[in-house]
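Annual report, structural modelling task.

Input specification for the calcium ion complex:
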Amino acid sequence: MPGPGHSRPSDLVVADGELYFVYETEDGDSRFARSDGTPAGTHVIADIDPSSTDDRIQGLTWLPELDLFAFVGRTPAAGNELWVSDGTAAGTRMVADINPGPDDSRPELWLAHDGALYFGAYDPVHGYELRRYTPGGTAAELVVDLTPGPESGGPLAMTSFAGQLILSMTDDGADIELWRSDGTAAGTELLQDINTRPQTGSLPSHFFVTGDLLLFVADGGGTGRELWKLTKAAVSDTPGDDSGDPGDDPGSGPGSDDDDGGSSGGDDSGPPPPSGGSAPAPSGGGGGGAFGGLGIAALIVIAGTRRFAGSKPRVGRR
Ligand SMILES: [Ca+2]
Ligand SMILES: [Ca+2]
Ligand SMILES: [Ca+2]
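The model returned the following structure:
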């Protein structure tokens, strides 16, 4: 923007060697744009609602696995809904008005997995539940209404691990636990009821993939929020099948491999667990078998975990 006004560029994203970003025009309107770093090479891609200056673009994300941008677009007619773009004006569009009319569906937790975009969004019939957009498709599908009806089932956190979606969800609107999904309703199953108290969830969060392990934070009940791990073998094991329990893997502690190698794009839901120089040692082999042999083990007790305890995550709107 020429002159003293602010263009407030935000949501800077690099895709295929070009910078994509969002900025504000003088009248407060929002624009999706790209730049090669020169004034001559800076172009507007889209104004998502040319009839309004009240439209907004937020949370611009590049999903290289899908060759696709995703963002939350707000227009006066549709509210906050999921939009996608291939970086062209013609290819920039709302996926679906999931919560019909001006009310918001508030899409969150976008994750590229198995050729599709998975996310949580709200509608008044199903609540905040897991949904999917398949590139090239014209709509968003409800994957599962895990807490049936208008109450919300999640996800609260989500990542891709061992070929499955790993999710923090609930089937009763309250008991938020660790689930897996193959992208079908029938293939969405509880991995483990980590906090076994009735109506009390362990609230798994902060999923972080490193090598063959998924680390996360959960409340086991009585121990507060601590660091837990899930092995790939545990994900492919059938829940409730006691005969096929894989061995736990207490040898692979954290801190030995802090890089982000196995991570798959879902890490924007929160910071990874503490790591690096202050990484604590595993608390001596204790973990293992106390939790049903699924390979999920209470890993370690870390100082400072309490900061997670006060923040009650929400699952959509109630
Ligand atoms: Ca506009
Ligand atoms: Ca809407
Ligand atoms: Ca529901």
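Residues 150-318 form one domain.
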